[in-house]
């Protein structure tokens, strides 16, 4: 999509070249989750906002065009500076005449559903084939209590979704938190613009909790105060206009996971500036998991270094860090002993069924894996080379590419799928690679 895009994004496959221990400093791109949050809040704020250090990827580009489709803001991407400018046009928010297509961008699509509640008229929002299977039902059921009618066109709880808006009154609603935290985040962000105070009650357990903390942090950064009782209920007082101005996106912790894993599996070293223990991104926690597996980790406020060593298996509940489970699973394949990753049912409804995908692909590499509905048990060993299927899932492609730094003959099919969250991934992998070309 970008002029500087890597030709490997167009290839059918890339073969990763193994190397000895890496020794590098590298930075992942801006956080996907924060870029999406700032875009949503800026679009609702009615004030000019410059999002600096933004992630420019398929997902955030879909979202930047989608918010502009309501006509009340214009969004301009600066490729050189990695920034997105959101400017009010002076027009009211209106439902776009055309269907809004969101590709595979789950978080933006879920944020957009509630946002369409503010737009006069009927907005139809859809996505790619996988997105048309991903669950939205809990969010659709929560919106009518706030005055917004939102239905799945096919009656199956998945996109296409039709939202009749201009009626986001606020009030009191209930939401389930067991399928995705994105529903709660979507309600929190979009309630800022409601006519009344909004109380959001989570009726069961909320998964992926760090993402809700990130939502509240992004709102606070833009001057919006939320009252909360833990993860059970949240109140968004009305009449708060986000402040606009400049916001800076920190590096992406899920993207960082591949850099940490590269050092772990090659028994090398990596230093990552700009993100560390001060971050609210839950995925930073992978550094500590890798420490338990035998790596030496230094987690400072705003940087992380990791030195790989002999790896051992770990038993770990990954409910709060779903996106880095494929990364951890690949590292576990190289560890001595067993790794049990539990409480990860949500992986089955992401870009692909990630429990099934990781299980299939590790087995293809000769690793024993047992899967259950919400867990994986990986028996570490010596993975062998294979042609890895990636299921149009960026995280499967990036995790298994890391395996190729250690194992001969790892070919990643459809390498372009990394563009969902990390279009520069293959170039960053080159930066880590002592031979300077990580793929052949
Ligand atoms: O709010 C967010 O930015 C995200 C929340 C998580 O989803 P779930 O809450 O569905 O686990 C995560 O998987 C996704 O990549 C980003
Ligand atoms: C699950 C993910 O994204 P989303 O739900 O936003 O599509 C992801 O990036 O791993």
UniProtKB/TrEMBL annotation:
It is an enzyme of class 2 (transferase). GO terms for biological process: amino acid biosynthetic process; aromatic amino acid family biosynthetic process; chorismate biosynthetic process. It is found in: Cytoplasm. One of its GO terms (cellular component) is cytoplasm. Its EC number is 2.5.1.19. The active site is at 323 (proton acceptor). Monomer. PANTHER family: AROM/DEHYDROQUINATE SYNTHASE (PTHR21090), PENTAFUNCTIONAL AROM POLYPEPTIDE (PTHR21090:SF5). Belongs to the EPSP synthase family. This is 3-phosphoshikimate 1-carboxyvinyltransferase.
């Amino acid at each position: 999509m970008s002029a500087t895009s890597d030709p490997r994004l167009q290839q059918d496959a890339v073969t990763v070249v193994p190397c000895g221990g890496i020794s590098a400093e590298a930075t992942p791109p801006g956080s996907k989750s924060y870029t999406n949050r700032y875009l949503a809040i800026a679009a609702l704020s009615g004030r000019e906002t410059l999002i600096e250090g933004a992630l420019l990827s398929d997902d955030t580009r879909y979202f930047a065009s989608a918010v502009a489709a309501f006509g009340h803001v214009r969004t301009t991407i600066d490729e050189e500076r990695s920034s997105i400018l959101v400017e009010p046009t002076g027009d009211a928010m209106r439902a776009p005449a055309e269907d809004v297509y969101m590709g595979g961008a789950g978080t933006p699509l879920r944020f957009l559903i509630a946002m369409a509640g503010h737009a006069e008229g009927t907005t139809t929002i859809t996505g790619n084939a996988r997105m048309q299977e991903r669950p939205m039902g809990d969010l659709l059921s929560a919106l009518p209590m706030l005055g917004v009618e939102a239905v799945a066109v096919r009656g199956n709880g998945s996109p296409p979704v039709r939202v009749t808006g201009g009626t986001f009154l606020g009030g009191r609603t209930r939401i389930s938190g067991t399928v995705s935290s994105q529903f709660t985040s979507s309600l929190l962000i979009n309630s800022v613009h409601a006519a009344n105070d909004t109380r959001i009650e989570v009726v069961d357990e909320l998964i992926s909790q760090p993402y809700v903390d990130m939502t509240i942090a992004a709102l606070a950064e833009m001057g919006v105060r939320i009252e909360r009782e833990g993860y059970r209920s949240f109140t968004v007082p009305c009449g708060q206009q986000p402040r606009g101005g400049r916001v800076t996106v920190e590096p992406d912790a899920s993207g960082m996971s591949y850099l940490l894993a590269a050092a772990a599996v090659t028994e090398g070293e990596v230093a990552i500036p700009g993100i560390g223990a001060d971050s609210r991104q839950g995925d930073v926690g992978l550094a500590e998991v890798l420490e338990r597996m035998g790596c030496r980790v230094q987690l400072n406020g705003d940087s992380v270094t990791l030195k790989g060593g002999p790896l051992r298996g770990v038993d770990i509940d990954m409910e709060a860090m779903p996106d880095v489970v494929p990364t951890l699973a690949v590292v576990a394949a190289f560890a001595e002993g067993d790794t049990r990753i539990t409480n990860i049912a949500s992986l089955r409804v992401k870009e692909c069924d990630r429990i099934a995908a990781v299980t299939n692909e590790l087995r293809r590499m000769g690793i024993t894996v047992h899967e259950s509905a919400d867990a994986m048990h990986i028996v570490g060993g010596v993975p062998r080379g294979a042609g890895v299927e990636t299921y149009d899932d960026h995280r499967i492609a990036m995790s298994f590419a890391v395996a190729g730094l250690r194992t001969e003959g790892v070919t990643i099919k459809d390498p372009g799928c990394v563009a969902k969250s990390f279009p520069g991934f293959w170039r960053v992998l080159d930066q880590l690679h002592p031979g300077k070309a990580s793929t052949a």
